[in-house]
Amino acid sequence: MSLIPLAAIWDSPDWTLARNLGILLFIVLWLATAYWTFKDARRRIADPWLVGLATLVGLFPPFLGPIIYMFFRPPEYLQDARERELEIKAMEERLAQLDQRCPVCRARVEPTYLVCPVCTTRLKAACASCGQPLDALWQICPHCATPVAPSLPALEDVSPRPRRTTRRRTTSD
Ligand SMILES: [Zn+2]
Ligand SMILES: [Zn+2]
What we know:
By secondary structure, the protein is mainly alpha-helical.
């Protein structure tokens, strides 16, 4: 068994194939990690110039760049940040709805108030059947299912009369 000279191994077609495959694998992995950096940066960074810079870092130095990028990348996805902002806005709107004020004197009023206790301004109409406060847009009382009269009750409606309407009597009896 004779020793094969090194030069023969270097020039052998098998070695050339293995070397070329190794180079190809290196390039594919290198580009894949750089592409991953680009994709990740695009999801986290809004500024296209900074995304380009992050991609450059992902390319050079090869393989080390993406790790360096990971140290400095923003901790949050843009999508998550946007969703959180929307959530906060919705919460603020909900709080603003809770914080209702009298349109005349700006005193804080509860949603259940019929009149402003400070300036006696009429805030809401009461249900003709159960007396619960009704919102301006409601077509029907949510508490007792009585349809809301099209306009606010006039003064003569306040005069004492049987509370139960004829419609209710016909349906219940
Ligand atoms: Zn008031
Ligand atoms: Zn009612």
